[in-house]
Design a protein that fits this description.
The chain is an alpha/beta fold. The protein has helices at about 30-40, 55-65; strands at about 1-10, 15-20, 45-50, 70, 75, 90, 105. The strands form two sheets. It has a five-stranded mixed sheet, covered by helices on one side.
């Protein structure tokens, strides 16, 4: 039906790198997310950073339906523009939401 490639990180986070499932099966992606979160909670993960939406409105909408616990800030790292200088620029707003229950952190 489907699979995902995920990585556990320090401080109770996990990162979802890749998801693939059969679109012909109704509810397969929510089921895959639910089962992934269940497993990650057993290994100590409290937050799951779902892959970037890459500006796709359907994916952005779907991710917001999960009512994220908070958003992570993204940065763009560029090549040095001067001697020993590296610039970083925020690439999105960071909204903080708090609510009880399972938490999902998403890259905005």
């Amino acid at each position: 039906l489907g699979f995902s490639v995920n990585q556990t990180l320090p401080n109770g986070y996990a990162l979802g790198h890749f998801w693939k499932a059969d679109h012909a099966v109704p509810g397969v992606y929510p089921y895959l997310l639910h089962q992934t979160c269940r497993y990650l909670s057993t290994v100590g993960c409290r937050f799951f950073n779902i892959e970037q939406d890459l500006g796709k409105s359907g994916l952005t909408y779907a991710k917001r339906l999960y009512r994220p616990a908070h958003y992570l800030k993204k940065y763009v790292i560029s090549a040095p523009t001067g001697p020993g200088r590296v610039e970083t620029a925020p690439a999105g707003a960071a909204a903080r939401w708090s609510r009880p229950g399972p938490h999902v952190a998403v890259a905005d």
